[in-house]
Amino acid sequence: MTYKPHRRIPDKDRVLAGYKAALNNPATTSEARSYARKQLLKRGHIKDAFFSTSLNTRMRRMLGLRAKRRH
């Protein structure tokens, strides 16, 4: 009997959560954030695409400041 690998279909909610996480992850490149935002817009999640990141985080990114240290 030959082995046939199971092809798993990703859950749509988990995919969307990954795109939202990419928008908030400080290690994500601007190209990746842009791609994640486009994918969210394409799927109709306008609020998540533009308002999932806090204003404080957006200001720090524009100014090139690093995130606050956590202990």
Describe this structure in words.
- The chain has one domain.
- The chain is elongated and about 60 Å long.
- Helix 1 packs antiparallel against helix 2.
- Helix content is 58%, strand content 0%.
- The model has no long low-confidence stretch (mean pLDDT 85).
- The protein has 71 residues and is an all-alpha fold.
- The chain contains 4 helices and no strands.
**Uncertain stretches of 5 or more adjacent residues:** none
Report the total helices: 4
Q: Please write the string of helix (H) and strand (E) elements.
A: HHHH
Largest sheet: none
* Total discrete domains: 1
Oligomer: single chain
In total, the number of strands is: 0
Strand content: under 5%
Secondary structural class? mainly alpha
Summarize the amount of helix as a percent range: 55-70%
Q: Roughly how many Å apart are the termini?
A: 54 Å
Rg, Å, rounded:
16 Å
Shape: elongated
Please give a quick description of this structure.
With 71 residues, this protein is an all-alpha fold. Helices cover 58% and strands 0% of the residues.
